[in-house]
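Pilot study result, target chain (353 residues):
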Amino acid sequence: MNSTVNSAVNVIGKAGTALAAELSSLRRELHQNPELSLQEHGTAAIIADLLAKMGCEVQTNVGGTGVVGILRNGGDSPAIALRADIDALPIAEETGSNYASKNPGVMHACGHDAHMTCLIGAMQILAQHRECWQGTVKAIFQPAEEIVIGAEAMIQESVLENPKVDWVFGLHVQPDLEVGKVGVKEGPLMAAADVFSIKIKGCGGHGAYPHLIRDPIMGAAAVVMNLQTLISRSRNPLEPGVLSIGTIQGGTQHNIIPEEVELTGTVRTYDTRLRTDMEAWIRRIVSGTVAALDLTAEVGYLRGVIPVNNHPEAARIAVNAVRNAVGTQALAAAVPVMGSEDFALFLEKASGC
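Predicted structure:
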């Protein structure tokens, strides 16, 4: 590490330490006031106010409820974007924490409160210590990550333009990483995520007279079991792939067979060909299964977010940043997961990690 970098690291490290208590308080405030996707109005207001106070150019209502803060220091280039997601999940918090959610049925259970706090802290340090850097930094506070539409909405509103972003970086807290470790990996890191629905139709009636009905519940059970053969028998075992059923809806009474049952689920893959095959295989399995039981079915399949694929040079930049800031011992090899992230869409438009 050269003397210039060493000096900047020391300055930034001391600034971060000085902000620790303030940022901890902010994170708890955000955690106590979670908001669902595209409803993040209070969250956005807090972010915009903090960015304005530190001297950023502030853009609001970007991609719905998104906020962008821009710091310029000696020209547009290089232009680096740092991204944090801001929405919460429809989960009731039962932690008993003294800073638990005040919004019933809504919780920051995925760490977005931490992501926002990290980015606010980074921008505050950059604003205070312009002698340590040059160029333009965009802080992108993205809404609606949990429903994977926020990144695309912000991109459509040119969040990566004016100036054109050269590099984009994001982070995600990970509970299985040891405290103090930072995981970095080039290449594929998070999976593509697709959604499917299956509506199975039969002929309902009284449960005491099964010979007079065509049972969609039995059909749904058979479909659930048969779909798993796609993972165990159709997919190459060396290619990552997941198929999970998340909901089953059907029926109103214990002794009445319904007319229809609806299933929904998710498919997670890394490989484009496997992603295409899975849709075709699901349709084939459903068609054959319901036909054997004299039922009918409708299958809906929605292509969701693409895989997160970190650019090699961006990953090397991230590794060097970690090494310079907190030492080589803090580096950990990030392990690919089957979760998904619409940060992947930013990586389609700019090199990043």
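One observation from the pilot: DSSP finds eight helices and 16 strands in the chain. A full batch analysis is planned for the follow-on phase.
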